[in-house]
């Protein structure tokens, strides 16, 4: 029921998308080709579009069929836009709402459409009504199911929920309340399109920029030429570098162009002019669009697959086991853009910046995630589809964050002794605190690793003439840029991180500065077996920040064996390690005089309170940082000031502490050159180069496969 379409690209007349194509929405209103329910969409239509210098879209809606409105045909011939959403309607039930029930619905910068039907409307939605504030219900534009779905979605958007998560949460909630509903939703703000395939057909198409849907190039001097963004605004230099393609997401193809790709049912689509990503709703998946013709990847020889068998999948950790880390851009315990800040029911994400800080990009120190399911690779289209140089592949389940939090807390706080993984430090407040930590005089790792890269980047580049840079944890922009700038023949960058939003932000920002690169972002847990995209070799894998120190010895062995499985002859691993030094220096880095690290450590309790309904009082615990000379690592702990019991309702768990009892929240191992060399050798790698800062506090090492020629 209903058909809809959204477009981002160069400016074109509305009719070029809605009227002129052979199977446009006009034709679909009486003869849809892919519609699975209903045959005529004559109960109204509408279009919303974005104009230059105005983020709020205009709308034209009518209660009758699109073919009967000659005024719209005239309007669509001359009105131009680079971002629009159009729809034709087949009403679920007769109503007196008129054009108010015709999509697109709107609020502020948003446009929304629903293709489908809610089963047993409106009775089935009774259980969801109490979840909305009165003003959301009173503000509904119409009394139809689509208007209610929009009110439900808009309520989440206004609460700051990201666009994709808002649609996913809406679909899941409605399907639970009314199983069997058809919930193909379409949402845009003029720069991003989000859509769901749930019960009916959905397709997308990408094409080179400055080209109309008819395949006719935009002529120089006309509106819509490169340099204007998807809403017709004049683009900045960074916009022009990043926005290299047009994209259409639609209920069905409006022509027979082979570039159309069908979206599997129960899938979320996120599309921008920089690429398209698909994520199964409630399941893991991998999607890697092919390279755009003319990009560095398009004619390069694919990197050969290593013959070394991959490391075996790691079993789930037992209670009390040490926790695993995150790759660091800033320091050994460096916060990644942790799941706690990336997905519901996670803490809020920190504000986005033109280039994310270190904490917004790396996996979590101390992270041990549940074993990830094998990625499900979508069948590729029969004809390759040209897309922009940015591609996103997802391998993490949609509910990974919530499941990991419950698993970690349940296992860690019932173990003897108690532990919590440090990834749960990093909600928005935790991320802010870590940024403060990296600027403290006591905290040296960030500064010392940056010093090495600044001095040795050219030497590192000379040791391996890399064509692809793979960054586990997708480190900070500043340190990454030092390596990128030193690799003149680099063609591809593959950042690996648990946060899709951080990857997209960093990838697009990087393309703005380095448009000749291809960026293949992987949403993945680097501790699981990875499947890297085919990119030109040699490849340089980097794991910065000393994050490997957050892994216990057996976990480090498994991680390094996994890395070895990714390398082919000629490839190399660049590894950052914090070095053993005076105990006073080490403890001070984790127990600063200003008390910032203490607040950072206690923040994990605030996260548990908010996400699991726990009743911890951070003031009931003292921050402890101590050096363990036997294992040569720093431990961060929280020590109960008095006997107490904390309740965690979401887990039906009560946790008792004796006075003075501690919970370990982080381990950070320190290294010596001989130990690093031995651990690399045990994994089948040979240490080839060793660089330190001027005070020998931190080290970067370059390793290759055993038996490979010395770089």
Record keyword descriptors for this entry:
711 residues, Glutamine Phosphoribosylpyrophosphate, subunit 1, domain 1, seven-stranded antiparallel beta sheet, 24% helix, methyltransferase, transferase, SAM-dependent_MTases_sf, EgtC-like, protein methyltransferase activity
Care to describe what's here?
The protein has 711 residues and is α+β, with helices and mostly antiparallel strands. It has three domains: 3-209 and 244-280, Aminohydrolase, N-terminal nucleophile (Ntn) domain (Glutamine Phosphoribosylpyrophosphate, subunit 1, domain 1), CATH 3.60.20; 399-424 and 583-669, no CATH class; 428-579 and 672-705, Rossmann fold, CATH 3.40.50. Helix content is 24%, strand content 24%. It contains 16 helices and 27 strands. It has an eight-stranded mixed sheet with strand order 14-18-17-16-19-20-27-26, with helices on both faces. The chain is globular. S-adenosyl-L-methionine binds at residues 473, 479, 497, 525-526. Residues 205-247, 282-391 are annotated as: Disordered. Monomer. Its EC number is 3.5.1.118, 2.1.1.44. Belongs to the methyltransferase superfamily. EgtD family.
In oligomeric terms, what are we looking at? single chain
What is the helix tally?
Answer: 16
User: On the 0-100 scale, what is the average pLDDT?
Assistant: 78
Largest sheet: 8 strands, mixed
CATH superfamily of the largest domain: Aminohydrolase, N-terminal nucleophile (Ntn) domain
The CATH class of the largest domain, by name, is Alpha Beta
Low-confidence stretches: 209-244, 283-388
Annotated CATH architecture of the largest domain: 4-Layer Sandwich
Beta-strand portion reads 15-25%
Radius of gyration over C-alpha positions, nearest whole angstrom:
27 Å
Question: How many domain modules?
Answer: 3
Which class do the helix and strand fractions yield?
alpha+beta
Domain Histidine-specific methyltransferase SAM-dependent: 406-703
Protein name: Multifunctional fusion protein
EC number: 3.5.1.118, 2.1.1.44
Catalytic activity: gamma-L-glutamyl-hercynylcysteine S-oxide + H2O = S-(hercyn-2-yl)-L-cysteine S-oxide + L-glutamate; L-histidine + 3 S-adenosyl-L-methionine = hercynine + 3 S-adenosyl-L-homocysteine + 3 H(+)
């Amino acid at each position: 029921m209903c058909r809809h379409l959204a477009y981002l690209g160069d400016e074109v007349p509305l009719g070029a998308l809605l009227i002129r194509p052979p199977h446009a929405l006009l034709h679909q209103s009486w003869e849809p080709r892919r519609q699975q329910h209903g045959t005529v969409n004559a109960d109204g239509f509408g279009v919303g579009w974005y104009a230059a210098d105005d983020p709020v879209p205009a709308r034209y809606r009518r209660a009758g069929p699109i073919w009967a409105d000659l005024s719209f045909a005239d309007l669509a011939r001359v009105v131009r836009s680079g971002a629009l959403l159009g729809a034709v309607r087949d009403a679920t039930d007769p109503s007196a709402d008129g054009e108010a029930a015709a999509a697109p619905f709107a609020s502020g910068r948003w446009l929304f459409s629903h293709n489908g039907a809610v089963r047993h409307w409106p009775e089935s939605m009774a259980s969801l009504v109490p979840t909305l504030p009165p003003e959301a219900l009173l503000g509904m534009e119409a009394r139809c199911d689509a208007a209610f779905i929009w009110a439900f979605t808009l309520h989440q958007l206004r609460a700051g929920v990201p666009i994709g998560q808002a649609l996913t949460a809406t679909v899941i909630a409605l399907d639970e309340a009314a199983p069997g509903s058809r919930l193909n939703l379409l949402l845009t703000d003029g720069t991003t399109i989000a859509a769901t395939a749930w019960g009916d057909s959905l397709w997308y198409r990408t094409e080179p920029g400055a080209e109309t849907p008819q395949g006719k190039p935009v002529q120089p001097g006309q509106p819509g030429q490169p340099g204007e963004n998807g809403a017709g605004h004049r683009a900045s230099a960074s916009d022009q570098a990043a926005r290299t393609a047009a994209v259409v997401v639609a209920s069905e193809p409006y022509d027979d162009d082979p570039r159309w790709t069908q979206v599997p049912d129960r899938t979320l689509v996120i599309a921008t002019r920089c690429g398209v990503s698909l994520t199964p709703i409630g399941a893991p998946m991998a999607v890697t669009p092919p390279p755009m013709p003319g990009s560095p990847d398009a004619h390069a020889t694919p990197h050969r697959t290593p013959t070394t068998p991959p490391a075996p999948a790691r079993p789930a950790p037992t209670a009390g086991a040490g926790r695993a880390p995150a790759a660091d851009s800033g320091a050994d315990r460096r916060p990644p853009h942790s799941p706690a800040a990336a997905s519901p029911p996670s803490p809020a994400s920190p504000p986005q910046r033109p280039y994310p800080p270190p904490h917004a990009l790396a996996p979590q120190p101390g992270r041990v995630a549940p074993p990830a399911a094998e990625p499900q690779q979508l069948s590729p289209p029969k004809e390759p589809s040209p897309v922009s140089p940015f591609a996103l592949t997802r391998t993490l389940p949609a509910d990974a964050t919530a499941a990991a939090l419950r698993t970690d807390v349940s296992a860690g706080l019932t173990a003897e002794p108690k532990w919590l993984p440090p990834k749960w430090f990093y909600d928005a407040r935790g991320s802010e605190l870590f940024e403060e930590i990296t600027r403290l005089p006591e905290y040296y790792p960030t500064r010392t690793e940056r010093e090495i890269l600044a001095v040795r980047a050219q030497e590192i580049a000379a040791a391996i003439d890399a064509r692809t840079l793979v960054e586990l944890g997708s480190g900070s922009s500043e340190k990454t840029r030092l390596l990128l700038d030193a690799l003149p023949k680099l063609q591809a960058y593959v950042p690996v991180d648990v946060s899709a939003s951080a990857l997209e932000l960093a990838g697009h920002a990087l393309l703005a500065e380095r448009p000749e690169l291809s960026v293949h972002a992987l949403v993945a847990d680097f501790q699981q077996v990875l499947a890297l995209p085919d990119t030109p070799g040699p490849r340089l894998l980097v794991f910065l920040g000393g994050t490997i120190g957050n892994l216990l010895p057996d976990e480090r062995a498994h991680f390094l064996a996994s890395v070895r499985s990714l390398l082919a002859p000629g490839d190399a691993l660049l590894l950052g390690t914090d070095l053993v030094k005076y105990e006073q220096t080490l403890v001070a880095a984790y127990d600063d005089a200003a008390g910032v690290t203490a607040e950072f450590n206690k923040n994990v309790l605030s996260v548990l309170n908010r996400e699991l309904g726990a009743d911890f009082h951070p003031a009931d615990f003292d921050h402890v940082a101590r050096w363990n000379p036997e294992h040569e690592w720093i431990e961060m702990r929280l020590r109960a000031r008095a006997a107490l019991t904390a309740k965690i309702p979401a887990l039906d768990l009560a946790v008792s502490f004796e006075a003075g009892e501690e919970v370990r929240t982080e381990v950070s191992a320190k290294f010596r050159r001989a130990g690093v060399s031995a651990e690399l050798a045990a994994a089948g790698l040979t240490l080839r180069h060793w660089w330190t800062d001027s005070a020998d506090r931190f080290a970067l090492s370059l390793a290759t496969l055993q038996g490979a020629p010395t770089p």
